[in-house]
Amino acid sequence: MPTPSKLLILVGTMTGTADYVAQAIELDCADLIGSIEVRKMDGLDTSVFDEDALYVICTSTYGSGDVPDNAQALYASLDAQPRFLGHVRYGLIALGDSAQYPNTFANGGRLFDARLADLGAVRLGEPLVLDAFTVDDPEAAGMAWCREWLPQALAATA
Ligand SMILES: Cc1cc2nc3c(=O)[nH]c(=O)nc-3n(C[C@H](O)[C@H](O)[C@H](O)COP(=O)(O)O)c2cc1C
After folding, report:
1. Which residue lies with its CA nearest to atom 22 of ligand 1?
2. Residue 94 Cα to ligand 1 middle (Å)
3. What angle do CA 66, 128, 83 make, to 5 degrees?
4. Are the C-beta atoms of residues 55 and 4 closer than 8 Å to each other?
5. Count of domains forming the chain
6. Which domain, by its residues, includes 86?
């Protein structure tokens, strides 16, 4: 499997925080890989995983531990159009709020993680969990995580 020259960050968000984190990474980590694209999950299905890219799933949590509205179609398609995703390598950024939602904390990201693993995709490294209760600057936390994660992820796919 050749090392991908693109990082594709798929964003599930309701009020924009996950998108801000992804955009901060796009700007900050441009020197680490050929290109970085931030794409909101709206209207996507499993075909998004056909690209020759390294992926980051960056999603918040809504409802009672659900994925955000704009991520519903993609998440559902992983059930409705299941197919082997053994070629997919991804990192995970899961946003939530442990004070308000202790029982379903950051579950939106965990849902994607479990479903992708079921389909054979391989998560690289530990997820970054961004807790709105404890993390004041999620963009800075996201950039710091990615600067460490991305070189290791690229080395793992080499
Ligand atoms: C109506 C509502 C429901 C939420 N449900 C959860 C939840 O079940 N678990 C959790 O960890 N966070 C939950 N959150 C918190 C958000 O996931 C968190 O604030 C996140 O940073 C928002 O990111 P976003 O702006 O990208 O949507 C909820 C927030 C709202 C407003």
Report:
1. 60
2. 10
3. 55
4. no
5. 1
6. 6-157
Ligand 1 centroid vs 108 CA: distance in angstroms?
9
- Residue 36 located in a structural domain: yes
Residue 76 belongs to domain with CATH number: 3.40.50.360
Residue 54 lies in a domain: yes
- Rounded CA separation 111/48 (Å): 18
Q: How far apart are CA 37 and CA 20, in angstroms?
A: 13
Pocket around ligand 1 at a 6 A CB cut-off: 13-18, 60-62, 64-65, 68, 95-97, 101, 104-107, 132
| Whole-prediction pTM | 0.98
Q: Does 135 reside within a domain?
A: yes
Tokens of 6: 């693109």
Ligand 1 mean position to 87 CA, how many Å?
30
In this structure, the residue with its CA closest to atom 28 of ligand 1 is: 62
* Mean pLDDT of all residues in 87-109: 98
Render pLDDT for 111-139 as a digit per residue (tens, 0 to 9).
Answer: 999 999 999 999 999 999 999 999 999 99
Looking at the CA of residue 132, tell me the nearest atom of ligand 1: 21
For residues 18 and 28, give the distance between their C-alpha atoms in angstroms, rounded to a whole number.
15
Residue 58 lies in a domain: yes
Q: Give the mean model confidence (pLDDT) for residues 149-153.
A: 97
Question: Using one digit for the tens of pLDDT, what is the confidence trace for 48-79?
Answer: 999 999 999 999 999 999 999 999 999 999 99
